[in-house]
Amino acid sequence: MQLGEKQKLIVVKEVEFGVYLAERKEDETRVLLPAKQVPQGMELGDEIEVFLYRDSKDRIISTTQEPKLKMGEVKPLKIISVQKIGAFLDWGLEKDLFLPYKEQIGKVREEDEILVRLYIDKSGRLCASMKGIYEILETDSPYRIGDMVKGRIYEFSDNFGAFVAVDDRFSGLIPRHEDHSFLRIGDAVEVRVTGVKPDGKLDLTLRQKAYLQMDQDALRVMELLEEYDGELPFNDKASPEVIMQETKMSKNAFKRAVGHLYKERKIVITGKSIRKI
Fold first, then answer.
1. What's CA 127's distance to the chain center, in Å?
2. Residue 133, Cβ density class (10 Å: 0-12 exposed, 13-18 middle, ≥19 buried)
3. Around Cβ 266, how many Cβ atoms within 10 Å?
4. For the CA atoms of 256, 262, 266, 268, what is the dihedral angle to 10 degrees?
5. Helices (DSSP H) in the chain: which residue ranges?
6. What angle is formed at CA 181 by the lines to CA 239 and CA 142, rounded to 5 degrees?
7. Burial annotation 227-263 (CB, 10 A radius, 16+ → b, else e)
8. Whole-angstrom Cα distance, residue 176 to residue 189?
């Protein structure tokens, strides 16, 4: 019998407060199914599918309820409460699921919906973890370049960017050079697929197609000009790092926006700056 998984067991004993289940009639290892969950008419020897977990007194118990998360899965669960030792999540069972502080990635808040997986801690209890999601996500998505998809942020990396679970199921990444500073873990995002790697993982962007994004970027440049009193202390020949730091745009996106504004005669480009007309 495995914790955290659904399995078929047989009724081996009836008691006033429920029935005991086992894999075989002769097995001494048995687990209780509480009386309120025993289907009407169930008899000794009957088979039933149940989920195994530990109750509030750490006793292994079975349930016919469908948990929102099982072993080997990744699912979004809502945070019910946050305490110093960790958080408690809505698991869909009578007992809430514990997310230890050491298994959290970043700060979590009540009502957040975050991606987690199940694991068994050193005490043999089922707990939730925000870590290790990357390894469990699938890579055989049906999506192609140009598709708009929905996903959830589950981790940030200074080296790679923002990790996204597309459909809470498939592995995707918003690269680090794209501004995602306004996002939090658990945020739902709508993104565009820009690439499908040989291993099936998805490259994603929050930005629209270039010809649609250009107007927004041009507006951002004009806003920056206002913040700099009408003159940016760099131009479109600045390094990609400077442009990203100052504008939160890639160098190509910045050059397209600046070129657009120049053609509309809204700016002047000098050797070292961009000035508003």
1. 17
2. buried
3. 15
4. 120
5. 133-136, 210-227, 240-247, 251-263
6. 95
7. ebeeebebbbebeeeebbeebbbbbebbbbbbebbee
8. 16
Arithmetic mean of pLDDT, 164-173 = 96
Q: Give the chain's radius of gyration (CA, Å).
A: 27
Q: Tokens 């400077």 label which residue?
A: 242
Give the model confidence (pLDDT) of 200-240 as tens digits: 999 999 876 544 556 778 888 888 898 888 989 998 888 88
Q: Which residues contact 101 (CB under 8 A, 6 or more apart)?
A: 84, 85, 86
pLDDT single digits (tens) 120-167: 999 889 999 999 999 999 999 999 998 999 999 999 998 999 999 999
CA separation, residue 251 to residues 93, 134, 211, 223, 255 (Å)? 50, 30, 15, 17, 6
**Residues across the chain:** 277
Q: Which residues contact 197 (CB under 8 A, 6 or more apart)?
A: 203
